[in-house]
């Protein structure tokens, strides 16, 4: 069974199908099989071009730290998505509407190359983002990030690698000609007749691309699984440390409240800020009184030769407690320091754990969702490519509804270039704020708005 026989079986028009010309065949196929795909690509074009243009504008002019590695990668992704939406989606609309009467091999080669180039470069950049996120989460408090020069170099290498992988599109794609009834010849933007007959290079290239794509997906899963595991481990460690610190603090307070301390020591069993202030005030009073004793001893040492003081410290701040000091004063001086030291040690331990714990920022969540969306949108396309490569007659055995779904899911990868601005808007509140500012700037630049502003 071939495409002509399939069309003959489903044709029930009043005019005999053998009398149809090429435009009539094209209209028939478009209405039966290609209309859902046309609407899908049109919606992506309406969403993708303004959305990615807005992302490029924001990350060029509105972001303060443009040298951050994540911002560099997001800007590169947005430019690739914008090129993909602005060039390949209009071409795809033209191909869909002229499905069997497209005869322009140069444009076909160029459009397929651009599409593969942007998608492959996106894969390399997303892998670089995953590695950068892994470095940040595994480096602890140091937060090792890629430098701006390294990030720009990675983006350049992604372009070179993508061009090296995508150049066979310029060789394989072109015009594929096939026969229709009444001697009509159909023409499609597809792999040329030469490589259709000698399909070993095409099959080798197809399986290579699918293998590379599978390797990238496996790496994405492994890297983000390691990041998720690290976050879970550090979160549990932080919770256990916080619980132990709270338990130790409550034990100290209960012990001091239940001890047989004197009335003077009861001041230090309370944990309010006023108690701390009163304790510090008592310490200051004690130090000032000790300073007075120091000056008195200094005068006595100058006037009396029988003074027992043989050497005088250089500063009253460094004077040790005399044995003549009362136990009350020594308790006043030592108790708050002990308690403050224990509290500081508990606080420092909590701070060290929280500092060691990687912070799951909204940028990390946003880039993770972009990667997941890219993997999901490419999955139907890869499955259909495998089916088409292993079974060349699979498409012609489908009915009209199944063919419509086939054509729709065969273009699922186009969704990845238009959905990223939507992900940014849902996840990042700062991005939404920057979008409002950018839209206000754009509206203020309109001629009508400028005229109203000058009149006011």
TrEMBL record:
The keyword Protein transport does not apply. Keywords: G-protein coupled receptor, Membrane, Receptor, Transducer, Transmembrane, Transmembrane helix. One of its GO terms (cellular component) is plasma membrane. It is found in: Membrane. It holds the Pfam family 7tm_1. The keyword Repeat does not apply. It is a multi-pass membrane protein. The chain crosses the membrane at residues 38-60, 72-91, 111-131, 152-173, 204-227, 365-388, 408-427. PROSITE patterns: G_PROTEIN_RECEP_F1_2. Its main location: membrane. Residues 51-424 form the G-protein coupled receptors family 1 profile domain. One of its GO terms (molecular function) is G protein-coupled receptor activity. PANTHER family: G-PROTEIN COUPLED RECEPTOR (PTHR24243), G-PROTEIN COUPLED RECEPTOR 19-RELATED (PTHR24243:SF224). This is G-protein coupled receptors family 1 profile domain-containing protein.
């Amino acid at each position: 069974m071939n495409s002509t026989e399939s069309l003959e079986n489903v044709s029930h028009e009043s005019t005999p199908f053998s009398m149809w010309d090429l435009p009539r065949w094209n209209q028939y196929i478009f209405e039966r099989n290609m209309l859902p795909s046309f609407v899908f690509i049109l919606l992506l074009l309406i969403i993708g071009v303004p959305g990615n243009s807005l992302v490029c504008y924001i990350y060029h002019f509105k972001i303060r730290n443009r040298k951050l590695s994540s911002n560099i990668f997001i800007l590169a992704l947005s430019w690739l998505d914008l090129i993909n939406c602005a060039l390949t989606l209009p071409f795809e609309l033209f191909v869909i509407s002229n499905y069997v009467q497209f005869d322009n091999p140069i444009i076909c080669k160029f459009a397929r190359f651009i599409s593969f180039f942007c998608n492959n470069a996106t894969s390399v950049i997303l892998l670089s983002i995953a590695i950068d996120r892994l470095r940040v989460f595994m480096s602890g408090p140091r937060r090792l990030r890629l430098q701006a020069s390294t990030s720009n170099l990675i983006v350049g290498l992604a372009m070179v690698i993508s061009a090296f992988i995508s150049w066979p599109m310029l060789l394989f794609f072109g015009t594929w000609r096939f026969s229709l009834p009444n001697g009509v010849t159909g023409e499609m933007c597809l792999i040329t007749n030469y490589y259709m007959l000698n399909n070993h290079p095409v099959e080798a290239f197809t399986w290579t691309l699918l293998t590379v794509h599978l390797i990238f997906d496996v790496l994405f899963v492994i890297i983000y699984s390691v990041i998720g595991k690290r976050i879970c481990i550090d979160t549990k460690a932080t919770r256990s440390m916080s619980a132990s610190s709270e338990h130790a603090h409550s034990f100290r307070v209960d012990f001091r409240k239940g001890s047989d301390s004197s009335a003077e020591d009861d001041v230090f069993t309370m944990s309010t800020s006023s108690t701390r202030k009163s304790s510090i005030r008592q310490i200051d009073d004690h130090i000032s009184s000790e300073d007075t004793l120091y000056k008195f001893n200094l005068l006595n040492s100058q006037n009396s030769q029988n003074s027992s003081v043989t050497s005088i410290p250089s500063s009253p701040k460094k004077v040790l407690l005399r044995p003549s000091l009362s136990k009350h004063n020594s308790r006043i001086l030592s108790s708050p320091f002990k308690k403050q030291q224990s509290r500081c040690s508990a606080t420092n331990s909590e701070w060290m754990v929280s500092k060691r714990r990687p912070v799951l920022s909204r940028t990390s969540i946003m880039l993770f969702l972009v990667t997941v969306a890219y993997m999901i949108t490419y999955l139907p396309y890869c499955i259909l490519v495998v089916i088409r490569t292993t079974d060349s007659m699979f498409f012609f055995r489908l009915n009209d509804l199944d063919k419509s779904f086939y054509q729709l899911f065969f273009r699922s990868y186009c969704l990845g270039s238009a959905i990223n601005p939507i992900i940014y808007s849902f996840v990042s509140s700062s991005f939404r704020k920057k979008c409002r500012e950018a839209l206000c700037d754009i509206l203020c630049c309109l001629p009508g708005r400028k005229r109203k502003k000058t009149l006011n």
